[in-house]
Design goal:
Helices cover about 35% and strands about 20% of the residues. It has six helices and seven strands; from the N terminus they run βαβββαββαβααα. It has helices at about 30-40, 75-85, 120-130, 150-155, 160-180, 185-190; strands at about 10-15, 45-50, 50-60, 60-70, 95-100, 110, 135-140. α2 (about 75-85) packs parallel to α3 (about 120-130) and α5 (about 160-180) runs antiparallel to α6 (about 185-190). The longest helix has 24 residues, at about 160-180.
Length: about 190
Amino acid sequence: MSDDEYTGPWLIAGLGNPGEGYARNRHNIGFMVVDLLAQRIGAKFKTHKSRAQIAEGRLAGQRVVLTKPMTFMNLSGGPVTALRDFYKAPTSAIVAVHDELDIDYATLRLKLGGGDNGHNGLKSITKSLGPGYYRVRCGVGRPPGRMEVADFVLKDFSSAERKELDWFVDRSADAVEALLSEGLERAQGTYNT
């Protein structure tokens, strides 16, 4: 079956770490975005045998499975691959929503394919699926001074950042919807600013 014959759902994978202690970390913006998308479609997350939580419904006129891998960030590829296999989805129907260090805070970039840029969640997914999936890259900026990258992404957003966080999560969710309804090029024209 070719990609253009695929009629199943899009898999929208929000990347993050499970557990209350990580819930507001920069590394968990992917979870925040899919949580908002689930609210928008009136769906509740439930545990799936793929070691992920999923919520199903319709978004931007498309069937979607929103997912939060429950394996911790650096093992995200396992659940995403299991869901791909379960729904028989092509890699081109998968969207990873994740934090991105090399983009200023509250800035978005959408793309198809590419490298992992040192992001362990993307590294894990790419190792399992190859690079041909969509990414909604949510900028969190670089760590200040000599702070280690791991320490930075596993910290909560600063009080200054939190003032814009709801808006940023909302805009990121809008970008996912635009990707599904308008395609990559038009969504990039709107959100890659």
